[in-house]
Protein: 3-methylmercaptopropionyl-CoA ligase
Amino acid sequence: MEGLMMQQPLRVASLLTHAERHHGSQEIVSRRVEGDIHRYRFVELAQRARRMANALAGLGIKAGDRVGTLAWNGYRHMELYFAVSGSGAVLHTLNPRLHVDQLAYIIDHAEDQVVFFDLTFLPLIEAVAQRVQSPKVFVAMTDRAHMPATHTLPIMLLCYEDLIDSHTQVFDWPPLDENCASSLCYTSGTTGHPKGVLYSHRSTVLHTYAAALPDALNCSARDVILPVVPMFHVNAWGLPYIACMVGAKLVFPGPALDGKSLYELIEAEQVTLSAGVPTVWQGLLRHVGERGTTFTSMRRTVVGGAPCPTAMTAEFQERYRVDVLHAWGMTELSPVGTVCSFKAHQLSLSPQQRYSIQATQGRAVFGIDMKIVDADGSELPWNGISAGDLMVRGPWVTRGYFRSDDAQPLVDGWFPTGDVAKIDPDGFMQITDRSKDVIKSGGEWISSIDIENVACLHPDVATAVCIAAKHPKWDERPLLLIVKKPGRSLDSDELLAFFDGRVAKWWRPDAVVFIDEVPIGATGKVLKNRLRELYQDHYVSAR
Ligand code: ADP
Structure:
């Protein structure tokens, strides 16, 4: 029909050209693996991304080819985000915390043609290189002076800065179809091989619009954003793209993710918004608490990837005046699905009522449809009580896995998340469990997350994990695994008594096991399945 709008394709490279033109002097600050702090501006990012795009073409990379990265959050990784995707190839971010065999599997499954890596990962890449067939070139993300003197890589090793220096910055981003692939991220399922989720230019740009909105991650040109969530994990929740769209300053922490290093960077660069998983924030809060100091600029932090305990929300907000944005997402959702920001009528609620809202993962951002269903697939009401399997659909939700022979995951066009959730009449969704973590006691479900939240409120508890342990009478009963704060003398009876009045009687765990530490997986989350393997017979063997 005449008089309609232009059909401008949505492309990743457009985010960069926008940032260069409209926010060219905005800064990107990176702590490098070389140990120093590097800073430059969006205009230089764009110039170097174009040089790298020319270099990729020189290496024979064609549209659709996969290019791997094994790197921390930093400016060179950001350059690859745009050089690779912008030129039509597929950026495949690799998680260095995976086992070497899994990494090798993923690289070959994706047929990565080139793999870029940070110097920290030379030993890992040497081990991986012995096991893979696909890559034709490795590139160390450093300059000539820091190139490794020796290595055991069986194929060519190039130097990142040499590639940049030997190519011009004249490059026209190709007019790609918005539905072609831009990046690839494997999700580490608990069973079988990791599965690849392939994002498109269109899905990435739409996700960027949605995730930047005020009631989502709330990002603007006045923000200084610190993505602690790694760029190898679902594109750092989209923050590198968002920063380009809105013109925010970016601060990259490199490999230093301990509380002290993060705190120093936050203060030095006057970060206003950070994002990461609860385990990272625990380290940060411990450091700031021990030093008796505070945050002078940080006003918001996005907590996601795992439930944010109310105790953590309260500490951030009451002690430091840092608002917590509790968010839920998945690799399969690019990742943002819901974010917890208040509606107007909730602002006048009591602090306790507001904390119970903040314990939810929040409302769906526009673009994500969600529903909860029972075992027969029938939709359940949004009454804040009924819990069922959470299903989602939307333009940045995957419809299948990359090169997967498995049955396609969708059920009538909906993606089953594997999470169990309830939704209240205001549309606030709360994950009560992963379907495999839920505790089925005598045919009724107990939420392991609710139990953990209560345990975390006890002042002597550092970390709480609740698992389903086999039970001769009830099939399963909750078992609580606790890491105490240093020097505390908490015992089981005291902790179990703490549950009285806080949860239904039959939800109270039957026992507590004190442990020294919890196993943490590749994306910074507690490995519940490993703990389940160790302790699931606790009630059976205790008899
Ligand atoms: P990410 O860790 O970025 O969210 P993954 O694909 O690794 O992505 O993991 C997704 C799963 O993590 C979800 O299905 C859900 O079980 C869990 N998860 C993510 N965010 C939250 C949250 N805020 N609260 C509870 N669970 C969460």
Q: What stands out?
A: The chain has a mean pLDDT of 95. The pocket of adenosine-5'-diphosphate is lined by residues 187, 233-234, 304-307, 326-331, 335, 361, 417-419, 431, 434, 523 (CB under 6 Å).
